[in-house]
Design brief:
single chain; 259 residues; mainly beta; eight-stranded antiparallel β-sheet; five-stranded antiparallel β-sheet; 13 strands; globular
Length: 259
């Protein structure tokens, strides 16, 4: 039986926005089997994987980008656990009475940490050119109140790490008269161990011939976070408490377009 997918679409100026949203990938069946085979040798996928949830943004000339759980999970290390031994041991010692702790600990990145920034799309020779830049996103401009013409919010995957935390990849986007803004956020909380946030922000101003894409990493040991539990478990609030460990910005430069 084909899964029901709710779709929404919005076109403005030279851009088209397509949203697809459906239920969690079933625990068995041909769709599950194909999804897992594509990700082999990753031995496990998040317990709540929204395989059909997609945001696709395309220029009228055919190039663009999209966000999918499948492409994000392709960047998860399928063979190594990158949590430091000391951290892993600390976590296991605090969870010694958990019957699930040994199920979670396997020789792959069981936190499903991904550096995914979206999937670039091309139409023949028409594709973005990606170049580093010192230019930064103008957040003051984004704070100016504008009418939101189109809005989307999606979860791509989520896992509760055997009741020992949370690993969530989600995105939000809004289109305004001046341009559009997208936030893709990977949020990881391993209880009593650490909190990590990877953010990808894309800001398009329509009268420019490029998009700015900023990727940042924030992380802190759990014991170093001076925040109430309600903020630690909130992926939006916790960002203000985490130190920035890295950030870089790129230009997605449009291809030469026909006049």
């Amino acid at each position: 039986m084909t899964s029901f997918v709710n779709r929404d679409e919005f076109a403005y100026k030279s851009w088209n926005f397509e949203i697809a949203e459906s239920h969690i990938l079933k625990s068995e069946g041909p769709e599950r089997k194909q999804f897992e085979e594509t990700l082999s040798p990753l031995p496990q996928i998040p317990e709540m994987t929204f395989d059909k949830n997609t945001l696709r943004v395309t220029h009228e000339e055919g190039f663009g980008f999209e966000f999918t759980a499948l492409d994000a999970l392709k960047l998860v290390d399928a063979e190594h656990d990158h949590m430091k031994v000391a951290i892993s041991d600390a976590w296991k010692s605090t969870r010694a009475d958990s019957e699930h702790v040994h199920e979670v600990f396997k020789p792959f990145d069981w936190t499903f940490t991904t550096s995914y920034k979206g999937t670039l799309l091309r139409d023949g020779e028409k594709a973005f050119t990606v170049t580093p830049t010192s230019e930064t996103i103008d957040y003051a401009k984004l704070k100016i109140e504008e009418k939101i013409l189109f809005f989307a919010s999606l979860v791509l995957f989520e896992d509760e790490l055997a009741d020992n935390g949370a690993s969530i990849l989600s995105l939000k986007m809004r289109a305004m008269d001046s341009g559009y803004f997208i936030l893709l956020r990977f949020y990881l909380r391993v209880d009593n161990v650490l909190v990590r946030v990877h953010d990808t922000r894309l800001h398009c101003i329509y009268d420019r011939k490029y998009i700015l894409r900023e990727y940042s990493v924030r992380e802190s040991a759990y014991s170093s976070i001076n925040a109430p539990v309600t903020d630690i478990t909130d992926s939006n609030r916790i960002v203000d408490y985490l130190p920035l460990t890295s950030r870089h910005t790129e230009k997605l430069v449009y291809p030469a377009l026909d006049s």
